[in-house]
Amino acid sequence: MSKKPESPSRIAENKKAAYNYFFEEKYEAGVVLQGWEVKAVREGKVQLTDGYVVIKDGELFVIGCQINPLKTASTHVTADALRTKKLLMHKDEIRRLMGKVERKGYTLVPLNLHWKSGRVKCEIALAKGKAEHDKRDVIKDREGKREVERAMKSRHR
């Protein structure tokens, strides 16, 4: 009996989100996908960078998440790479999110797609947009850490 090797848990990550937003709370939601999308996700043909989450009629949808179809995709299905995907969460969690998103400056941002028990899950965050000076501070801190690491590395030689 050979066990199937586990696929990597992270499928795609939205690295721009941490640069553009402060995260208040994080949630995990299931993603409704079509068959060809699951196959493409297994191959890593996913991009979350421009994605965002909206609440419409008490349901969550992720818009801008791009899943590029494989060349071997089925011929009888029209593959739309930018199709709006529905997210699955409990109703009370969605209601709680609706109340928080209606406050000024808050939005829902997809952080990553990952595997959990053989299903594709999306981690979303309740986020507040960063001002331009906050972004500059992040860059300055990152460069400062880099300089310290370089100095420590050259000192140990």
TrEMBL record:
Biological process terms in GO annotation: trans-translation; trans-translation-dependent protein tagging
Keyword Chaperone belongs to the record: no
Subcellular location: Cytoplasm
Matches recorded under Pfam families: SmpB
Region (Disordered): 135-157
GO terms under cellular component: cytosol
PROSITE patterns noted in UniProt: SSRP
InterPro entries: SmpB (IPR023620), SsrA-bd_prot (IPR000037), SsrA-bd_prot_CS (IPR020081)
GO molecular function annotation: RNA binding
SUPFAM superfamilies: Small protein B (SmpB)
Alphabetically ordered keywords of this record: Cytoplasm, RNA-binding
Domain of life from the UniProt record: Bacteria
Stated family: Belongs to the SmpB family.
Function summary: Required for rescue of stalled ribosomes mediated by trans-translation. Binds to transfer-messenger RNA (tmRNA), required for stable association of tmRNA with ribosomes. tmRNA and SmpB together mimic tRNA shape, replacing the anticodon stem-loop with SmpB. tmRNA is encoded by the ssrA gene; the 2 termini fold to resemble tRNA(Ala) and it encodes a 'tag peptide', a short internal open reading frame. During trans-translation Ala-aminoacylated tmRNA acts like a tRNA, entering the A-site of stalled ribosomes, displacing the stalled mRNA.
UniProt cross-references to PANTHER family, sorted A to Z: SSRA-BINDING PROTEIN, TMRNA-BINDING COMPONENT OF TRANS-TRANSLATION TAGGING COMPLEX
Annotated protein name in UniProt: SsrA-binding protein
Gene: smpB
